[in-house]
Design a protein that fits this description.
Dipeptide-binding Protein, domain 1, six-stranded mixed sheet, 21 strands
Length: 521
């Protein structure tokens, strides 16, 4: 466990190192100007080479695409596994293992036609048996326990012929189409023993806490990857991560802060976007004093989002006031970020009404491998001093965070980013249903549960959008958490590396990254 840095040192360092970088573009790649001609000038891809990517956390203990918990695991395995459908850089669902998808008029029957020529990484062709096995496994139809949240809506999976798969839901669900990004794996396959997908890269090896190695799949049905090999090197220390990039031992690193980017100098290409997640101070609603809505509201009034963005990313990012980020355009409510405008006196008054006129001391548990969250917690601690709240920051490793905070719910508060695991707006809201297994904040509101059930069953899109917005408003007014931002995401690439593209979801597509010269490769 790393020691928490002193807040004064943090603020001074960030202020000194922050420079005018390219503005975050909401998920669209934008190359930052660089004095280095070799880094800034675009060049044609050179096929081949071995790419090394620095990442801050290891994969989940079980490399099972149907049991993935962390966003970090999903962004790596995006390159290995594919579903019947796959998102593109605009967030639209495109045919993948399937070549076609038809939905009946009532929105409860999905008919897929399998694409010709799709092979698994073991060389075997994908058949309807593989698809049926994969979807039944995800839905728990044979075990009674769904492996993917939301797949309990599946009633049956059938194949009327050797090219067609029909999925019938228990009730109409116009958003369920996005769930078919769930990985297709071979019939009878146990992913914990043999990792086999259909993506542009195949799984080669893994050394826990050290690296994950992927190799180009020459039999890929789609556009082939440029590089021959990708090694994800696990570096859970932020300073070491930047040093590794500067030394050339890694070629690409994502999720950097502006201060980290400034440390790199001019020999790197930097692209920026947003992370497509909701960063917040997540509160355990069952633990005192956060079981008191007035305390939660007081903390919301004590937060200055713009100050946090100024400190971490040169003022870039997108303020959020509920559990929805801007790239979910038709669902996102920008107005909710203004419900709790910074008001120290209002915060103090609410604390007094809640029985804490002199404030209190609270723990904020933060995964130490994510520097943006560590830095955010430090800025929050400084802001809370103004209302008499003392913050004890507990930096923990990623495994401890998963077991104690996410799974065990044994915590007071935490700074983390939550993404849309199923690539739907619903995924951002379903975790706050009182009975949800992913409701790690223990939020509970009968009205919220009722509205969510109504929204999930809605077949009229306009009505569903309106219900989702009402759910967001409940989370805001109940101050379920202290919502902060969709963070600016800086991705840095060494000389001779280009091609990184942002998606409106939390993934890293390595098939598009390439070297521009043989020396770099």
């Amino acid at each position: 466990m790393r020691k928490t840095r002193k807040i004064t040192a943090l603020l001074l360092a960030v202020l000194m190192l922050t420079a005018a970088l390219g503005g975050c573009t909401g998920g669209k790649s934008a190359e930052t100007a660089s004095p280095s001609a070799s880094a800034a000038v675009s060049a044609a891809p050179v096929q081949g080479g071995e790419l090394t990517v620095g990442i801050a956390q290891d994969l989940d203990d079980s490399i099972d695409p149907h049991k993935m918990v962390s966003a970090g695991t999903r962004e790596v395995l995006f390159n290995v596994f594919e579903g019947l459908l796959k998102p593109d850089t605009a967030g639209e669902m495109q045919p993948a293992v399937a070549s076609d998808c038809k939905i009946n008029d009532t929105g409860d029957v999905f008919t897929f036609t399998l694409r010709d020529g799709v092979k698994f990484h073991n060389g075997n062709p994908v058949t309807t048996k593989d698809v049926i096995y994969s979807l039944k496994r995800a839905a728990g139809l044979d075990t009674g326990t769904p492996l993917i949240n939301g797949f309990d809506e599946v009633k049956s999976v059938e194949a009327p012929d050797d090219k067609t798969v029909v999925v019938t839901l228990k009730k109409p669900d116009i958003e369920f189409k996005a769930m078919f990004t769930a990985a297709i794996i071979p019939d009878g396959n146990d992913p914990t023993k043999e990792t086999i997908g259909t993506g542009p890269f195949k799984f080669a090896s893994r050394s826990p806490q050290q690296n994950v190695v992927l190799e180009k799949f020459d039999g890929y049905w789609g556009t082939p990857a440029h590089v021959d090999k990708v090694t994800y090197k696990i570096i859970d220390n932020a300073e070491t991560l930047v040093m590794s990039l500067k030394s050339g031992s890694v070629n690409l690193v994502a999720h950097l802060t502006s201060a980290q980017v400034k440390e790199l100098g001019s020999d790197f290409t930097v692209v920026d976007g947003t992370m497509n997640l909701v960063q917040a101070l997540y509160l355990n609603n069952k633990v005192a004093p956060f079981d008191n809505v007035k305390v939660r509201q007081a903390l919301c009034y004590a937060i200055d989002r713009q100050n946090i963005m100024d400190m971490l990313s040169n003022g870039k990012g997108a303020a959020v006031g509920s559990s929805m980020y801007p790239n979910f355009k038709k669902y996102y409510r920008a107005d909710l970020a203004d419900v709790y405008k910074p008001d120290v006196e209002k915060a103090k008054s609410l604390l007094a009404e809640a029985g804490y006129p002199n404030g209190f001391t609270m723990d904020v548990t933060v995964p130490s491998n994510y520097q943006p969250h560590v830095d955010t917690a430090a800025v929050i601690a400084e802001q809370f001093k103004k209302i008499g709240v003392t913050v004890n920051i507990k930096n923990v490793d990623w495994g401890t965070w998963l077991s104690e905070v996410y799974s065990g719910r044994n915590y007071q508060s935490t700074v983390i980013g939550v993404d849309a695991a199923s690539l739907t707006a619903r995924a951002m809201l379903e975790r706050f249903v009182s009975t949800s297994t992913s409701n790690f904040t223990n939020f509970s509101d009968p009205e919220y549960d009722k509205l969510y059930a109504e929204a999930a069953a809605a077949t009229d899109e306009a009505k569903q959008v309106e219900l989702y917005k009402q759910l967001e408003e409940i989370l805001t007014k109940d101050a379920a958490n202290v919502y902060i931002q969709d963070m600016c995401d800086y991705v840095a690439m060494g000389q001779g590396v280009q091609g990184y593209e942002f998606y409106p979801l939390y993934v890293m597509d390595m098939s598009k990254v390439y070297f521009t010269n043989k020396t770099a490769a």
